[in-house]
Design a protein that fits this description.
By secondary structure, the protein is mainly alpha-helical. It is about 60% helix and about 0% strand. It has a two-stranded antiparallel sheet with strand order 1-2.
Length: about 170
């Protein structure tokens, strides 16, 4: 039954468009959208200022690498992420990709830190709850005592008001 449904599902676009399933363009795998595609580092054009020509936009595009001057916070991110050892090692211009990767590493480290702090806080709450249970302290008892105290205060105020009126 499942095979029939899957086959019918795969033939449905072809039936709607009137073409065979291999001719439907959005059913074909797209090599540009694969998950493991990496640029071949050896075949990449490494252009310098002397090789860039006005008539070749490919070379001009590969030679231009956008970057920016890192701020003090960016420098701290680069240090904390382990990209550089000291602040003097950081160049004046840093690529945006390097800054993004440093921020992502810091973001992941902060998430791990928050997970650890949450786990420790949970353990502290469990331990303090067990100590309170041994002392026979609980919220119900606290609420009853608080309500009794408030009721006493209210009755005393009512008695004072009644005494002043007489």
């Amino acid at each position: 039954m499942w095979r029939g449904l899957l086959r019918a599902r795969s033939l449905l676009p072809a039936a709607v468009t009137g073409r065979s399933p291999t001719q439907v363009s959005w059913l074909k795998p797209n090599p540009r959208r694969s998950l493991c595609s990496k640029v071949n580092q050896d075949s990449a054009v490494k252009a310098t200022d002397s090789t860039v020509k006005a008539g070749s936009p490919e070379l001009a595009y590969s030679a231009y690498k956008p970057g920016r001057i890192p701020s003090t916070l960016d420098k701290k991110f680069l240090l904390w992420s382990g990209r550089f050892k000291t602040e003097q090692d950081i160049p004046e211009m840093v690529s945006i990709e390097m800054l993004y990767s440093a921020r992502n590493k810091i973001r992941v480290k902060m998430c791990y830190l928050m997970i650890g702090v949450t786990a420790v806080a949970c353990l502290v709450m469990v331990v303090s709850g067990k100590k309170a249970f041994k002392k026979h302290e609980n919220l119900t008892k606290w609420n009853l005592e608080k309500k009794a105290k408030l009721k006493e205060q209210f009755q005393q105020e009512q008695e004072l008001l009644a005494g002043k009126e007489k």
